[in-house]
Amino acid sequence: MVGDVLSKACSYGLRAVISLAMRQESSYQPIRELSTTLGISFHFLTKILQQLTDAGILVSQKGPKGGVALAVDASRVSVYDIVIAIDGSGAFTACILGLPGCGSRVPCPLHEQWAEERLRIEAMMKEESIDGLAHEVSSRRLRLGP
Amino acid sequence: MVGDVLSKACSYGLRAVISLAMRQESSYQPIRELSTTLGISFHFLTKILQQLTDAGILVSQKGPKGGVALAVDASRVSVYDIVIAIDGSGAFTACILGLPGCGSRVPCPLHEQWAEERLRIEAMMKEESIDGLAHEVSSRRLRLGP
DNA sequence: CGTATTTCGGACTCTGTTGTCTTAAATTAA
DNA sequence: TTAATTTAAGACAACAGAGTCCGAAATACG
């Protein structure tokens, strides 16, 4: 349904990355800490953050004092980057009626209408930086967890 | 991911209803015909169309010469009506980060941005009538099946 | 070196959606 | 009435996403 635009893995990843961006210290943050703060299963979150590490968005460190940290400045990471890293590059190309090969040549009857909305969503996600969201959460005391 | 805004059940239902609206004859159309034309599993489509019958969007008739038909004029049925009937009334209210109780009082950092997009999608789906889409498919020879 | 800590990697279970199958009930027509 | 056709209803299987669990590898520290 509308609202399932992001997989759970993706929304978990987003919340974790925003959380990391809010962190003052420059040290690594253990995934266990993140998982308890955000109320997300530790092992599940571990896998998701591994994907972000593979994608070059995070860096990780094993052992004591280990954990994860942002690999680049939070102002240079967008919501879009996280979505692509976790849900894959096909996340913004699917037909709303699920017709295979629906495109501008042989479109479904909702193709143009949906393409417009999808482009707006894509633009919005490219616009929103992790840094900006982290500041919003700090200043307006918004929620990231339960 | 983006593109999974509608469940498969919902997109199947939409395609079937548009197909019904394109029909010239005023008789019932057997679900079996619809399922073969659209390339959808017969039994699965049967269940979905039952939901639309329960919702008062279709009428059904058992036995020979039976099948389903639109209960009201196609111009008075919108895409939104179908989505609500199949995916439920909560289809347009979920938080994009999956936070329970995310609302204007205690929002997630993407609440306002997503609310805007969601409202646009809702408006688009209310705007698009089954009748209009059916005519589009006829005149522009668009696809509803594989 | 040895131990504790932490990510990495794989295998596994659980759950909701999708899809299949079988039987019952209703309706038409001979 | 009987037979054929079609939806209704429910049980069941297959699949994917979500979540759990266990051991291996790396690292810091005594």
CATH superfamily of chain A: Winged helix-like DNA-binding domain superfamily/Winged helix DNA-binding domain
Separation, N- and C-terminal Cα atoms of chain A: 22 Å
Strand content of chain A: 5-15%
Order of helices and strands of chain A: HHHEEHHH
Largest sheet: spatial strand order of chain A: 1-2
What's the CATH C level of chain A?
Answer: Mainly Alpha
Name the poorly predicted regions of chain A: none
Q: Tally the helices of chain A.
A: 6
Protein model, in words:
The structure is a homodimer of 146-residue chains. Chain A is mostly helical and 146 residues long. Helix content of chain A is 49%, strand content 5%. In chain A, a hairpin with a 5-residue loop joins strand 1 (58-61) and strand 2. In chain A, helix 1 (8-21) packs across helix 4 (79-87). The radius of gyration of chain A is 17 Å and the shape is elongated. At the A-B interface, helix 1, helix 4, helix 5 and helix 6 of A face helix 1, helix 4, helix 5 and helix 6 of B.
